[in-house]
Write a structure and sequence with these properties.
With 101 residues, the chain is mainly beta. The protein has one domain (5-93): 2Fe-2S iron-sulphur cluster binding domain, sarcosine oxidase, alpha subunit, N-terminal domain (Ubiquitin-like (UB roll)), CATH 3.10.20. It is built from 1 helix and 9 strands. It has one helix at 35-41, and strands at 5-6, 10-11, 17-22, 25-30, 48-49, 56-57, 70-73, 76-80, 91-93. The strands form 3 sheets. A 5-stranded mixed sheet has the order 4-3-9-7-8, covered by helices on one side. Strands 1-2 form a two-stranded antiparallel sheet. It has a two-stranded antiparallel sheet with strand order 5-6. The protein is globular and about 45 Å long. It starts with a strand and ends in an 8-residue tail after the last strand. 24% of the residues are buried. Bound molecules: FE2/S2 (inorganic) cluster. The site of FE2/S2 (inorganic) cluster has 12 residues, from loops.
């Protein structure tokens, strides 16, 4: 779910919808929004598991400082998805199913 009407910020114009791949599933996202925002809009709150204990991690700081949202984007590991904009055709993988990091 995305905020399209805000009581303070007013109406928000949603950009062009594009398709990205996340762990093999095609999802719709708004071009230019943070990858993490697109995943949250789809209900995906866990973006990785810690390598040592397998604990779930998702958006924590939301400003690119903590790495809790890190995923593999177009083959590049440890990309902070909260500050990386969506581009059409991106391939994103987590380590939730044994792939990714
Ligand atoms: S949520 Fe902290 S770096 Fe993305």
């Amino acid at each position: 779910m995305r905020v399209e009407k805000h009581p303070v910020l007013g109406d928000r114009k949603v950009g062009r919808m594009v398709t990205i791949s996340v762990d093999g599933a095609e999802i719709e996202a708004v071009e230019g929004e943070p990858i993490a925002a697109a995943l949250l809009a789809q209900g995906m709150i866990v973006m990785r598991k810690t390598p040592r204990f397998g604990e779930p991690r998702g958006v924590f700081c939301g400003i690119g400082r903590c790495t809790d949202c890190a995923m593999t984007v177009d083959g590049v590991p440890n990309v902070r998805t909260c500050v990386t904009p969506v581009k059409a055709g991106m391939v994103i993988t987590s380590n939730l199913k044994g792939g990714g990091e």
